[in-house]
């Protein structure tokens, strides 16, 4: 019975099937919102499904100078790690494999693996455009890791000190804290951290204004320039599922603790909040601004979100 | 709990006897295979004798003692040289002998084209014997003598290939700075002897405890600076980048991966046993600050290098910073956090030895195959040397701390220990340095193994079988240490950590029981340590990952079997070529991006910071000496103000 | 014997000053051996006991014979040997550097830097 339940969690909800479908729907909603905000009609919401199906039918080309095994394995490793992360973030009241001591650190570690998979895939393709792309991807990762770590530490300190006297790294304790004291977004001490996290989401997902690693017009998609067919589809899937997990992480860190008493209603409310978060942080910004350069990315992330997160860290200890 | 045995003596003396045997038959050139055999057999004998010692010492907690020449102590004063092997010494000894054994097998194939190989094997066995002697002894001056033999052997091996200019310059800088470090250690030893009239470490710790005169504080400052030169802490870290770059690779892995551990062994013995400072907050602050500075400088210098082995040496400096921070947390007065810090430091010692040796072996394989280590001239070697590429990627993922390799486990323990001890900025800095580590490892991977193959390197071949087997053993060790941390912690780490804190036992086995209590006037509590304090491991998570990987593998293999016949159609036209890379219309050889340029943007942004660091490592010997002396001065001023 | 200690420390400080400021490589090696000499002087002075004789068994031992401390003298012998070896090794490296670089000025022997 336990293994059957685990298999259900892994394969159907929120594992393979649910995260892929919901991630693609999120990506479709994002494109539709951006188009409407720019006074266009835009593609239908199911468009990413059609894109992936189209890509699966195209021919897979592997360049002659590429390192073949690494070229094939890299996108798969990225997708697998992203799906594994989705099993560790709880919905309202349902914990799949989490609730233990060191959740957030495992999530942070696993979040670096898709970026590494992109870098390795680009390196294995042997193209000069890919080299530029992966150096930019590396610098972007360096820049957004700093505020992300401080945000997690700040929220963990605030929740842990109130409940157990010691800093906590478990999402269950953070949700218990929010049940007692109200959502973290309304709390003045963690509001700067929430704002900083909203800045980090577009950089993690890889959309404008922080998608300088995959700039379509400058370096022809960067690390993905030699990918075609099904492997390109897997990279696009990874990006979509990452949107889902970043939204879910925001909801459980800053908007948790709400309970309606009914499991289905809880899950639906969580899904609604994820859509709202992604629309606010990704679509609103994407429709109005352009892409910024790599040194501006570094300077931005090491000043504004870091300062906000440090303010939150200091306020957590007062 | 006393255990008198002659196995430590066998472990120390056998390499020395082997060295002299090789020296005796060295004039006969035809006996070269016999010399190689003597080297391998001597290191094997040392390894086996230390393995026989594990059962009483590690598993049952006894301590082996041996008074040389049978000069037993008279009237509670020690008059002979004593060997004392407890779990911490045995733990370090096992790391040393295991790595040296594999290095001796590796060097048989690697050094085939050099001449004067008889001198190489003599020096190699001298290095091995002195390292084991340093770790297993219990006498302060004996440690200095073994340290000097180690330094000589290492300098001679660094300057071994003396037809290349790099080796000579590196050897000279090493000898100036290294002998300065040894002089500082001897100065500290002399001052301690002037105060206590004995040289036995157990007795010194009993006599010095809690009465610090100015002479002993000065001695502590000098000895800390001296061991800082040996264990490359900033700012005494300027000799390893030159020395590890120029030595032959089978020796660089010993210098970088193993000799640094002996420096840390000396440091820990100094802080935890001779000058017992567990519970002093000011010492804890000093060690943690020192470790953090080392981490940052090591990682920042490593990103801007253009030479393979020099970059690996700087990354060694940064990882040693991690270990020192962990041992600094171990000095904390809250005993459960302190124990976690010590366990993390010990685990990172054994992890660092494994993956650093593997990285240097890969560098040696690349040098052996292509003849250069300049990464701006290399590229695209993964098609010709696939086995080396996989092993390099395993080591790169271990050093950056990705699961399921071993770097993840030890770095997790260090993060948790520093955060619970109240040093949250140190945790943040450690995480950022970890990302920097990933950055320069990816830079190496891209510029050496992936990318495009230059025309000159068309006919490189894969490394021979002997070298591949030794590299594979280290990679297997990395994987095993990452997957079974509970077993390693229970059998190797906890006895070692217990014996570090258990000063009473250390003193009692040399003298009689109860001697330490009379001297110390109170019993030092030994905290309870189990592995569950680290608390992150969930076996179900890995079951989950396994199923997901299985499904992904099935899908991937199914897709890739579709086009197994569409490979490598060799067309001669460069335009409209379906299997060439997209270069926007240019010819391929005019559009390369070398790996040295990978981080030029970052370097340009922070050019004040990186420029300052580059100018500080100016290459002039006098500057390096000035750094060491100023470090000593700062340490003495701080310790006089504090103690 | 206070003057011994002061003399030893002054010799060591002079040796360190030479190592820090002179540019000729042979002068740096001379500085190293000066530091060693100062250290040996310090080591021997530590073992001095006023009124004692040399610790050698000439005839058989009479009770009440007063020796100076023999242990630092053994340590000094070891240290002198080590100092000689260090000087020999460093000077031989300087000879090879002169062949390769053509100069023994520390400002010019700095191809490994950065």
UniProtKB/TrEMBL annotation, chain A:
Compartments, record wording: Membrane
Mode of membrane association: Multi-pass membrane protein
Membrane spanning stretches: 6-29, 71-98, 104-125, 146-169, 181-201, 243-261, 267-288, 300-317
Principal localisation: membrane
Cellular component, GO annotation: plasma membrane
Keywords attached to this entry: Lyase, Membrane, Transmembrane, Transmembrane helix
Secretion signal, residue range per the UniProt entry: none
InterPro entries: ComplexI_Subunit1 (IPR052561), NADH_UbQ_OxRdtase_su1/FPO (IPR001694), NADH_UbQ_OxRdtase_su1_CS (IPR018086)
One Pfam family hit: NADHdh
GO molecular function: lyase activity
Name of the molecule in the record: Formate hydrogenlyase subunit 4
Organism (species): Clostridium liquoris
Lineage: Bacteria, Bacillati, Bacillota, Clostridia, Eubacteriales
Gene this chain is encoded by: hycD
From TrEMBL, chain C:
Endpoints of the signal sequence: none
Transmembrane parts of this sequence: 6-21, 74-95
UniProt superkingdom: Bacteria
Lineage: Bacteria, Bacillati, Bacillota, Clostridia, Eubacteriales
Keywords: Cell membrane, Membrane, Transmembrane, Transmembrane helix
Species annotation: Clostridium liquoris
Keyword set includes Membrane: yes
Protein name, UniProt field: Na(+)/H(+) antiporter subunit C1
Keyword DNA-binding recorded: no
């Amino acid at each position: 019975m336990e293994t059957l339940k685990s298999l259900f969690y892994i394969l159907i909800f929120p594992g393979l099937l649910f995260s892929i479908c919901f991630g693609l729907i999120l990506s479709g909603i994002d494109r539709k919102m951006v188009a409407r905000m720019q006074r266009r009609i835009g593609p239908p919401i199911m468009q990413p499904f059609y894109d992936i199906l189209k890509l699966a039918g195209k021919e897979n080309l592997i360049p002659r100078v590429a390192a073949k095994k690494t070229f094939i394995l890299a996108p798969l490793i990225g997708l697998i790690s992203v799906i594994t992360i989705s099993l560790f973030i709880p919905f309202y009241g349902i914990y799949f494999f989490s609730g233990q001591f060191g959740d957030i650190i495992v999530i942070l570690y696993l979040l670096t693996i898709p970026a590494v998979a992109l870098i390795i895939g680009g390196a294995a393709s042997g193209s000069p455009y890919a080299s530029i792309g992966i150096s930019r991807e590396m610098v972007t990762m360096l820049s957004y890791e700093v505020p992300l770590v401080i945000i997690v530490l700040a929220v963990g300190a605030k929740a842990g000190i109130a409940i157990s006297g010691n800093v906590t790294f478990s999402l269950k304790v953070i949700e218990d804290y929010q049940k007692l004291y109200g959502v973290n977004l309304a709390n003045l001490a963690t509001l700067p951290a929430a704002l900083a996290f909203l800045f980090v989401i577009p950089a993690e997902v890889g959309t404008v204004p922080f998608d300088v690693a995959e700039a379509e017009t400058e370096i022809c998609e960067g690390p993905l320039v030699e990918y075609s067919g099904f492997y390109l589809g897997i990279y696009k899937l990874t990006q979509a599922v990452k949107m889902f997990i970043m939204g879910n992480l925001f909801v459980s860190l800053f908007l948790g603790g709400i309970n309606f008493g009914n499991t289905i209603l809880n899950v639906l409310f969580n899904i609604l909040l994820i859509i709202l978060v992604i629309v606010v942080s990704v679509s609103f910004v994407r429709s109005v601004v352009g892409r910024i350069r790599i040194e501006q990315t570094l300077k931005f992330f090491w000043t504004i979100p870091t300062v906000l997160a440090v303010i939150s860290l200091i306020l957590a200890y007062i | 709990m006393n255990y008198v045995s002659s196995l430590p003596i066998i472990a120390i003396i056998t390499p020395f006897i082997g060295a002299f045997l090789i020296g005796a038959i060295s004039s006969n050139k035809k006996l070269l295979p016999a010399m190689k055999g003597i080297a391998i057999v001597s290191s094997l004998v040392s390894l086996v004798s230390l393995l026989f010692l594990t059962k009483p010492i590690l598993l049952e907690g006894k301590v082996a003692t041996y008074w040389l020449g049978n000069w037993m102590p008279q009237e509670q004063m020690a008059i002979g040289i004593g060997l004392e092997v407890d779990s911490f010494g045995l733990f370090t000894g096992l790391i040393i002998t295991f790595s040296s054994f594999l290095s001796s097998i590796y060097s048989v194939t690697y050094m085939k084209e050099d001449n004067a190989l008889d001198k190489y094997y003599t020096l190699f066995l001298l290095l091995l014997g002195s390292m084991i002697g340093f770790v297993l002894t219990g006498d302060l001056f004996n440690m200095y003598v073994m340290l000097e033999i180690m330094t000589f052997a290492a300098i001679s091996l660094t300057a071994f290939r003396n037809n290349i200019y790099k080796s000579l310059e590196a050897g000279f800088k090493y000898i100036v700075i290294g002998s300065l470090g040894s002089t500082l250690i001897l100065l500290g030893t002399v001052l301690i002897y002037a105060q206590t009239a004995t040289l036995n470490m157990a007795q010194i710790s009993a006599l010095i405890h809690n009465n610090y005169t100015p002479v002993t504080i000065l001695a502590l400052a000098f000895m800390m600076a001296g061991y800082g030169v040996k264990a490359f802490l900033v700012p005494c870290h300027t000799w390893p980048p030159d020395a590890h770059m120029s030595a032959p690779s089978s020796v660089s892995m010993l210098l970088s991966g193993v000799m640094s551990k002996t420096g840390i062994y000396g440091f820990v013995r100094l802080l935890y046993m001779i000058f017992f400072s567990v519970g002093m907050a000011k010492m804890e602050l000093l060690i943690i600050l020192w470790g953090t500075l080392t981490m940052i400088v090591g990682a920042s210098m490593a990103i801007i290098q253009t030479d393979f082995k020099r970059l690996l040496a700087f990354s060694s400096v940064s990882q040693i910073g991690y270990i020192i921070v962990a041992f600094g947390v171990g000095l904390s007065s809250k005993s459960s956090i302190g124990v976690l810090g010590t366990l993390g430091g010990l685990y990172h010692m054994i992890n660092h030895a494994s993956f650093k040796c593997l990285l240097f072996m890969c560098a040696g394989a690349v040098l052996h195959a292509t003849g250069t280590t300049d990464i701006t001239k290399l590229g695209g070697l993964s098609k010709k040397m696939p086995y080396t590429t996989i092993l390099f990627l395993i080591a790169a993922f271990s050093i950056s701390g990705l699961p399921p390799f071993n770097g993840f486990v030890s770095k997790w323990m260090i993060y948790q220990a520093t955060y619970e001890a109240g040093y949250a900025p140190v945790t943040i800095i450690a995480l950022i340095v970890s990302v920097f580590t990933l950055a320069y490892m990816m830079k190496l991977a891209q510029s050496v193994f992936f990318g495009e193959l230059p025309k000159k390197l068309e006919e490189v071949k894969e490394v021979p079988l002997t070298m591949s087997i030794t590299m594979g053993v280290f990679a297997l060790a990395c994987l095993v240490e990452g997957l079974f941390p509970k077993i390693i912690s229970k059998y190797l780490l906890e006895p070692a950590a217990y014996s570090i804190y258990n000063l009473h036992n250390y003193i009692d086995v040399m003298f009689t029981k109860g001697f330490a209590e009379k001297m110390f006037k109170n019993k030092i509590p030994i905290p309870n340590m189990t592995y569950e304090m680290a608390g992150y491991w969930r076996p179900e998570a890995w079951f989950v990952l396994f199923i997901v990987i299985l499904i992904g593998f099935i899908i991937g293999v199914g897709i890739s079997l579709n086009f197994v016949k569409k490979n490598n159609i060799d067309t001669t036209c460069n335009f409209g070529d379906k299997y060439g890379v997209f270069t926007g219309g240019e010819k391929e050889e005019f559009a390369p991006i070398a790996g040295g340029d990978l981080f030029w943007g970052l370097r340009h942004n922070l050019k004040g910071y990186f420029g300052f660091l580059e100018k500080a490592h100016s290459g002039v010997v006098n500057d390096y000496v000035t750094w060491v002396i100023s470090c000593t001065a700062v340490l003495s001023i701080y310790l006089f103000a504090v103690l | 014997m206070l003057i011994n200690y002061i003399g030893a420390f002054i010799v060591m400080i002079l040796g360190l000053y030479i190592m820090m400021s002179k540019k000729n490589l042979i002068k740096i090696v001379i500085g190293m051996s000066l530091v060693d000499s100062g250290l040996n002087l310090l080591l021997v002075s530590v073992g001095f006991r006023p009124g004692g004789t040399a610790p050698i068994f000439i005839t058989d031992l009479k009770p009440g014979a007063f020796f100076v401390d023999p242990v630092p003298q053994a340590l000094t012998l070891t240290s002198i040997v080590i100092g000689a070896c260090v000087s020999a090794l460093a000077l031989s490296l300087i000879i090879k550097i002169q062949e390769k670089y053509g100069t023994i000025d520390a400002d010019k022997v700095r191809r490994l830097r950065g």
